[in-house]
Each structure stands twice: as structure tokens, then as C-alpha cells.
Amino acid sequence: MSVDFKTYADQACRAAEEFVSIYYDTMDKRRRALIRLYLDRATLIWNGNVVTGQSELRHFFEMLPSSHFQVNMLDCQPVHEHASQCHSTVLVVTSGTVKFDGNKQHYFNQNFLLTAQTTSNNNTVWKIASDCFRFQDWSNSR
Predict the structure, then answer these.
(1) Using CA of residue 10, residue 18, residue 56, residue 54, what is the dihedral sign?
(2) In the beta sheet, which residues pair with residue 130?
(3) SS3 letters for the chain?
(4) What are the pLDDT digits (tens) for 9-38?
(5) pLDDT, tens digit, 9 for 90 and up, residues 64-115
(6) Cβ-count burial of 16 within 10 angstroms (0-12 exposed, 13-18 middle, 19+ buried)?
(7) In this structure, are residues 38 and 128 in contact, taking their beta carbons and an 8 Å threshold?
């Protein structure tokens, strides 16, 4: 039996809210564990710089200074199964502010494409397939 779209969208939103809480808490407090949230072949685009795969992601996150993220906006939508090779997939969009040690506070926008994965004990976990992060500060050169 197929699930109606409203139920599917509600489930996607609950998953997105839980994921966002886990992601930014992990980014700020347990950075070394962050790569566990990514698929093995996930891609991160960080301000135009492409990082792909667990090893490169681990190295990239270790190089970032410590951070404090404040998420001000969260939006999500389920991705139709025909567009996601029949996997349960959710697009998550966040924005807010971030302060990295030794740097000024920046506005940011981040988009995640999450896909549901079944664990060995039949639980469902959401993993990042694609992540695009960008600072949103206006240029001072205007």
C-alpha cells in the first residue's frame, strides 16, 4: 500500500529536523564523528571546493577550526522515488550563522541530500549523499 504524499512529507520533515539537530551538534562538539553521517562516496561542496569520499571528508573536517553553528531556518521536501533510484531521499535546506575560531561570524546556507539506509538490525538511518555549504555574506567590495 502506498503512503499518501502528506504522510510522506511529514515523515521527511521529522527526519530532517532530527538530522539537522544531530549534524550541527556533531559539527560543533564531536567533529571526528561527523563523517559517520556521510555515505562512503558522498560529495561535499564547501564554498565551491569539492571534497569526495570518506578519507577526503575526514581530512577536510579535521582542518576546519572549531565552530559554533546557529540554524535559523530549516526546510525540507521528499524527493520523488523516480528521481532518486527508488531510494527514500530528502532534500534539506538550512541557513543561519556560523563562527569559526579566529574568524568573524558568517551567514551560511547549506543543502543536504539525504538517503535512507537500512542497518544490519533493520533500523533506518539517514546518510548524506550530497552536501553543499556556502557562506552568504555580502561582499565588502561594494
Answers:
(1) negative
(2) 43, 113
(3) CCCCHHHHHHHHHHHHHHHHHHHHHHHHHCHHHHHHHEEEEEEEEECCEEEECHHHHHHHHHHCCCEEEEEEEEEEEEECHHHCCCCCEEEEEEEEEEEECCCCEEEEEEEEEEEEEECCCCCEEEEEEEEEEEECCCCCCC
(4) 888 889 999 999 999 999 999 999 999 999
(5) 999 999 999 999 998 866 555 557 899 999 999 999 999 999 999 999 999 9
(6) buried
(7) yes
Q: Which three cell numbers stand for residue 132?
A: 553543499
Do residues 79 and 113 touch, judged by C-beta distance below 8 A? yes
Strands 67-79 and 89-100: antiparallel
